[in-house]
Amino acid sequence: MFALDPQSSVPLVTQIVGGFRQLMDDGALRAGAKLPSIRQFAHAHGVSVYTVVDAYDRLVALGYFLSQAHSGFFVRSRSSQESSSLGGSGHYSFDSMWYLRRIFENRALRSKPGCGWLPGDWLFTEGMRRSLRSLAAEDVDLGGYGEPKGYLPLRQLVRDLLAAREVVVNADQVLLTQGSSQAMDLAARRLVREGDAVLVDEPGYANLLFSLRFLGARLVGAPRTPAGYDLETLEARIIEHRPKVFFTQPRLQSPTGSSASLAHLHRVLQLAEKYDLIVVENDIYADLDPESRPSLASLDQLKRVIYISSFSKTISPNIRVGFVAANPELLEELARLKMISGLTSSEFTERLAYGALTDGRWRKHIKTLKERLAQGQQQLATQLLELGFELFTEPKAGLFLWARHPAVQNAAELAYKAVEQDILLGPGHLFSVDLEPSPWLRFNVAWGQDEAVLRFLSALKAT
What we know:
single chain; alpha/beta; 14 strands; 13% strand; globular
């Protein structure tokens, strides 16, 4: 069929994709032909099953392969126009949603410096177990559905939490959701119509960008700076595109780790007032911030701001409990939309989260978490600088560092090489408005001390 060269600098996944593409473009494999199974190809060529899965999935995304359940993979019928649009030179683009699903969120990889979650031993595991035992001992009615807005005691707790963050709400202004992702999706589906210009952080929160693209929004980037925003460009793009909503993450932002200064927050709200913008504030890392910072919501008191946060990052990603707070009229609309799209959220998981949050050791857990992240920030920043990386900023708190290396032009290519070493990286194009190749990488400092990762990255120093 074709030979692979394990000694080549070209990743094996790329060699497999290129080999099959060449066979199909030359006519050696015709439309409808059955392809070797993943295991057959892996055995015949002495490569890992995972490598072949990756390559086959990429060929499906590119439109070369067709996957049929229980039957295998077949050569897909493609017009010459389709073929040329994918590029005949060996350079190709691919479906970034596929990449997100197959690579970026692949928990099977051993090392995960590009992921967006904490390691299991950093989470509030014992608190969760205590909450689960307590819940099991209660006479809880597990029949029926929960409250439309969510478990009332947890909403009251969120009200008190927001009061500590200087946001004044009542419990009826809080809607519990299945993580912050559902909260942002509800806000997007309420505020965005197909073809609308939507202002977003650039680079920005990857899941949100994919969700907005799915809705047919025209994404308009608001460039991030270490202090928050490029305010001049922000206003210019508002004037040019006239968006009605701005989705932003002022604090410990993903992927850059930056936090907006107070002056920048005030200016964003001035622009929102001047140009009639609704601002959706994603504040999911508030609990990881050792500083007491104002939020857009605290400055605006939910007149123009919709405030979103989550407990999934600090308790456990498997506890999909987030919340949204908004002015009463808009909150009721979001609650109705929640019921239409998915009925109530899980009262069981909301009770579990409530038990963990009211556990006597919760505050100590959060304090320890902040300290570990601060230490991880310092250590990984030092190591990346020694390896020749440039840092966007040094936040000294939170999960992320945003970095690039002069030897890397397209971080996606490096990410594919990393996969072959059982390492998950976070390439910059995933966080980009236009999905163009990017040299930037997102690093999660909680996973940054893995020796295998540092060895892999150290090869860049020699190039």
